[in-house]
Amino acid sequence: MLGAQIGTLRAYQGRFDAAAVQRFVETWSHMPTWRAALAYTYCELDRFEEAREHFAVLASQGFNLEQNRSWHSASEMAQYAAACESLRDRDAAAVLYRYLEPFAGQVAMVSNVVLSYGSFALSCARLAAVLERWDEAERHFTAALAMNERLGARPYLVQTRRSWASMLLDRDAPGDRERARELIAAGRAEAEELGMARELVHFDRLQERS
C-alpha cells in the first residue's frame, strides 16, 4: 500500500524508478498491476522497447479483463491506456477501448489504498485517439476534463490537457492547432505549479509540434 502511494506521488513528480517497480513485478508476479506499472514507467523514461516487451506479456494474458477485485483497483486499466497511448498500439487499444468504454462515466479508484486515477474517460479518450476515432476521443476528453475539475484531480487535469492537445495535433483539422496551443499553455502552467517534471517534458515536446 505504501509502495503504491509513494510510487504514485513520485510519478506525479517525474521521479520514476524502474528498478523498484521491477522488484514488485518479481515479488508479485501474479498481479498484473505491477507489470502494467512497469510498462508505463518505461514509457515515461523513453525506454520504449522495454515497455513493449512488458506490454506484450500483458496483451498475451488478455490484459486481466476479468471483473474481479483486482480489476476494480483500476490502476492497471489506467496504466494500460497510458502505455498504449505512448506505444501507439492500435490492436491493444481496440481490445481495451471496447472493454473500458462502458465505464467512462466512473472514477478510477484503488479503494484498498485510497488512490484515484481521476476520470476513466481520460483512459477512454487516450484509447480512442490511438484508434483515430476523433469524435469519440473528443467526447471523452471533454467529459474527463469536466469530471477531473469537479473532483479537484489536478494531476489528471494536467494529463487530460496534454493528451487532448496531442490528439488535436494528430488530427490537425482546421482550428486544432490553435486549440492545442491553448491546452498546452494551460496544462503546462498547472504542471509547473504542481511540480510535475515529466509532464513539463511532454508539454515541451508538444509545443515543438504545434
Provide keyphrases for this structure.
72% helix; Serine Threonine Protein Phosphatase 5, Tetratricopeptide repeat; 210 residues; two-stranded antiparallel sheet; globular; single chain
Q: Tally of extended strands?
A: 2
**Integer count of domains:** 1
Q: Tell me the CATH architecture.
A: Alpha Horseshoe
Tertiary shape: globular
CATH uppermost class = Mainly Alpha
What's the total helix number?
11
Runs in which pLDDT lies below 50 for 5 or more consecutive residues are none
Strand order of the largest sheet: 1-2
CATH superfamily: Tetratricopeptide repeat domain
Q: Note the main sheet.
A: 2 strands, antiparallel
Overall pLDDT = 91
Distance between the termini: 40 Å
Break the fold down into its secondary structure elements and pairings:
Elements: H1 2-13, H2 18-27, H3 32-44, H4 48-60, H5 75-87, H6 90-100, E1 107-110, E2 115-119, H7 120-130, H8 134-151, H9 154-171, H10 176-194, H11 197-209
Antiparallel strand pairs: 1-2
